From TrEMBL:
Protein name according to UniProt: Carbon monoxide dehydrogenase
Organism: Streptomyces pluripotens
Pathway per the UniProt entry: Alkaloid degradation; nicotine degradation
Region annotation (Disordered) ranges: 152-173
Alphabetized UniProt keyword annotations: 2Fe-2S, Iron, Iron-sulfur, Metal-binding, Oxidoreductase
InterPro entries: 2Fe-2S-bd, 2Fe-2S-bd_dom_sf, 2Fe-2S_ferredoxin-like_sf, 2Fe-2S_ferredoxin-type, Beta-grasp_dom_sf, Diverse_Oxidoreductases
Pfam families: Fer2, Fer2_2
C-alpha cells in the first residue's frame, strides 16, 4: 500500500506492507532510530510517539493507520539546535541510565507538559505509568520532568496552548 505520512513536519510517501508496524516504518523505512522497539505487546512503552498530537505506542499501530496523519518522534523534540526543556531536564537530572526507555519517556513528558505546565509528582507518575524503566527506579525521570516544567518546559506547541487536555480515555500511551 502507498502511504503518505508527515513525520516531524516532513512528508514521506512510501509503499509498505499492510502489516508493517509504525515503529518499524519509522526505524527501518525512514531510518529514524530514536523511537525504540521493545516488546510488540504495548507493555513497555519505549516506542511512544505522537499520532496527530496524541501519544501512542507505535508497536500497536500499523503504518497504514498513519496514512495522511502527522507523526512526531523524539527526533522532532529539539527546536533546531536548541534542545527541548524535556531533553535538557533528562541531561541535568540524570533521567536516563541505559537510554532505552528515554525516547518514549521524553515524548510522554513533552505531551504532559504541553497539557499541564506545572504537573505535580503524582501527575508525572501517572503520565509515565504506561512506560517501563528497568534502570532508574523513576526518581530521576520524575525529577527531570519537574526540572523541565520549572525551566520553561510547559506548552511548547501552539495547539496545546489553546486546547483543553483530552480526557484520560483519549490518551493511548
Amino acid at each position: 500500500m502507498r502511504i503518505t505520512v508527515s513525520v516531524n513536519g516532513e512528508q514521506h510517501t512510501r509503499d509498505v506492507e499492510p502489516r508493517l508496524l509504525l515503529v518499524h516504518f519509522l526505524r527501518d523505512v525512514l531510518g529514524l532510530t530514536g523511537t525504540h522497539w521493545g516488546c510488540d505487546t504495548s507493555n513497555c512503552g519505549v516506542c511512544a510517539v505522537w499520532l496527530d498530537g496524541t501519544p501512542v505506542k507505535s508497536c500497536t499501530v500499523l503504518a497504514v493507520m498513519a496514512d495522511g496523519q502527522e507523526v512526531r518522534t523524539v527526533e522532532g523534540l529539539a527546536h533546531g539546535s536548541e534542545l527541548d526543556p524535556v531533553q535538557q531536564g533528562f541531561i541535568a537530572c540524570h533521567g536516563l541510565q541505559c537510554g532505552f526507555c528515554t525516547p518514549g519517556m521524553m515524548m510522554t513528558a513533552r505531551w504532559l507538559l504541553d497539557h499541564n505546565a506545572d504537573p505535580s509528582e503524582e501527575d508525572i507518575r501517572e503520565a509515565i505509568s504506561g512506560q517501563m524503566c528497568r534502570c532508574t527506579g523513576y526518581e530521576n525521570i520524575v525529577r527531570s520532568i519537574r526540572w523541565a516544567a520549572e525551566h520553561g518546559g510547559g506548552a511548547r506547541t501552539a495547539d496545546a496552548a489553546t486546547e483543553e487536555a483530552p480526557g484520560r480515555e483519549e490518551v493511548r500511551a
